[in-house]
Automatic annotation (TrEMBL):
<keyword id="KW-0813">Transport</keyword>
<dbReference type="InterPro" id="IPR050153">
    <property type="entry name" value="Metal_Ion_Import_ABC"/>
</dbReference>
<keyword id="KW-0067">ATP-binding</keyword>
<dbReference type="InterPro" id="IPR017871">
    <property type="entry name" value="ABC_transporter-like_CS"/>
</dbReference>
<keyword id="KW-0547">Nucleotide-binding</keyword>
<dbReference type="InterPro" id="IPR003593">
    <property type="entry name" value="AAA+_ATPase"/>
</dbReference>
<protein>
    <submittedName>
        <fullName>Manganese/iron ABC transporter ATP-binding protein</fullName>
    </submittedName>
</protein>
<dbReference type="GO" id="GO:0016887">
    <property type="term" value="F:ATP hydrolysis activity"/>
</dbReference>
<comment type="similarity">
    <text>Belongs to the ABC transporter superfamily. Drug exporter-2 (TC 3.A.1.117) family.</text>
</comment>
<dbReference type="InterPro" id="IPR003439">
    <property type="entry name" value="ABC_transporter-like_ATP-bd"/>
</dbReference>
<dbReference type="InterPro" id="IPR027417">
    <property type="entry name" value="P-loop_NTPase"/>
</dbReference>
<dbReference type="Pfam" id="PF00005">
    <property type="entry name" value="ABC_tran"/>
</dbReference>
<dbReference type="GO" id="GO:0005524">
    <property type="term" value="F:ATP binding"/>
</dbReference>
<feature type="domain" description="ABC transporter">
    <location>
        <begin position="11"/>
        <end position="246"/>
    </location>
</feature>
Amino acid sequence: MTDTHAAPDGIRVTDLTVTYRNGHTALRSATLQVPGASIAALVGINGSGKSTLFKAIMGFVPLSAGSITLLDQPAHRALKQNLVSYVPQSEDVDWSFPVLVEDVVMMGRYGHMGMLRIARAEDKRLVTEALERVGMADFRHRQIGELSGGQKKRVFLARAIAQRGQVILLDEPFTGVDINTERQIISLLHELRAEGRTLLVSTHNLASVSEYCDHTVIVKGTVLACGPTATTFTRENLENAFSGALRDVVFGDGTAQPALTTAQGNG
């Protein structure tokens, strides 16, 4: 008998190919599945297709082949319903643009407003709650460009929370942050998962993947491996995907194995 109450897939990508106008194919025949209410790591070398996957999910680039469903519905429908939040890399943001912290977070509410984007009391309440949740309420009237790297990351997390997206894509959230901020972000990701959100986290920080990620997706022009972190975040799979010096890390099965260090940057 089919369980009609089974949790929906958070993210399902089937045979996805993305070829840019210059002829470069960034992803070819990529297939992955991330269960709902889970945290998945997206790992791979620079240029492996991580950023392209995010762009495809967000509808920023056309699909050459394949399909994407979010929460068991076509991606374009989920996006139209404001069910998907995106936390970009710091490098993708113009920090010189004069905008207040609270206005950045309010952008997460735009999809719920009318054409004039007039904030209602509910929108303002959700912005305040989101800022309090990430510990940035005291900075709401500061210019975003004045903040530290870790503070900026928390502000964009607050924007995603205020949007109330059920699928949250985070592109390198730990780059340029100290260990305390990293711990705060990981704690927040756990809270969001407990609330039923699905999170896909692109990261070069391989040392902490097994600590907070239920699932792992490993990419290198396609999806090399996808599944529970315990069985996917393995030395063999990482050696297939990466090159570089070896340093200590605990892999998905709990054993101490050398991790691969990789260069930071867009992927």
